[in-house]
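Worked Example 4.2. Consider the chain below.
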Amino acid sequence: MMRGGNREMRRMLDKMGLEMKDVQNVQEVIIKTDTKEIIITKPSVTEMKAKDNSIFQIIAESYEERELEVPVFKEEDILLVAQQANVSPEKATQALIEAKGDLAMAILQLTTK
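Applying the procedure from the previous section yields the following C-alpha cells:
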C-alpha cells in the first residue's frame, strides 16, 4: 500500500460525506441467516457512516459456522403461507421447514394433501 494511502482514503470519504471510524473492543459479531449462524470472535470492525445509514467492515482472522437445527422464517412468510393455505401458523412453519423455505412449495404441499 502506498504511503499516506489511509489518509487519502479518509479525505476521499469526507468528500463523499462518509465518516470512518474503528469500533473499539468488539468481542463478537454474529451473522444470522435463515439456516446458519456465522460467529466471528474478536474481529476488527470499521464503521463508515453516511447521512442515512452505516456500512460495517468486519475483518476476521477466523470464524465458526453453525447450521441451525430449525430454520428461522420471517413472521410475514409464516402468516402468508398460513393465510393462503388456510392453516395455523404452526402448520405453516412445518410446511416451510419441509419445503426448505420455498413459500410456493409450502402452500402447494398444504393445499394438495
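The mean pLDDT is 88. The chain has two domains: 5-67, 75-112. Compare this with Example 4.1 before moving on.
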